[in-house]
Structure prediction request, 268 residues.
Amino acid sequence: MSKKIFTILALLGLLVGGSTVAMAKVEFAVAPFTADTDGWIADNLRSSFVGGLRARAATIESLGQLPTEEKELLQALNEKGIKYLVRGKALSTLTSSQQTKTYKDGEMVDKTVYNCEIYYAISFISSKTGRVAYSTVTSNYAKYKDSEGDAIKEASRINYPTSVLPEEYHQSLGQITSLGQSSKKGAKTVFATISKGVPYEGRVYTVYEQIPSEEWGFEAGEMLLSKIGELKLKDANQEGLNLEMKVTDGEEEIKSVFDAGVHQMIIK
Prediction:
């Protein structure tokens, strides 16, 4: 197996203030999201993206009269100093249920809980060049909810919109150097060198596979990100630079991508 070094990325903190849109600060003009699933899911994804970024993002409707033709729209946004037109699409909604136990009236009883995962795509089109500067396909997950509706509602929110921003909003923290423990199901641990920041117990690192845009039928020259798993620090008391991290989600996918050595993985 050939070794491959994988970049660990983490988000830069976005310094924003206030909930009122300040036009001088707007960097993202967000168009209505579309959906292959229910339209209200697309609306929730969009509103949570805009709300999470606060003054740095605004809906197209809130920016006044703008052209509807995309080339003219991008030109108008560029003139306003807005860097990106953001488009999104809800792709699929996957729900499941499982049986668990809970206390009720002093005794243990069976309970059905519900899970949901919603996949969506989001693209950032440069107002200066008119090209897609960055695109990603990722998902939100909700677990152990009392109803299917509650699970879908929670999964339709982008709780951390900074995680899907273009690469310029990320900074490198270190590298994954090798796989650790593994089984037939996949990687149990990986080893990583953290060069910036201090890892702490409980912090979640999301793992993405970088895929050339042409492999998904888009224009060549861009890198798309597809979420494949999550990591956590295995032991907060580790010494040295090479730290062991637990694979908490995506064991099979992380091992498969690593072993194939074709696509790079990033963590943020």
Observations:
- The CA atoms of residues 199 and 233 lie 7 Å apart.
- The radius of gyration is 20 Å.
- The helical segments are 39-53, 70-79, 148-155, 251-260.
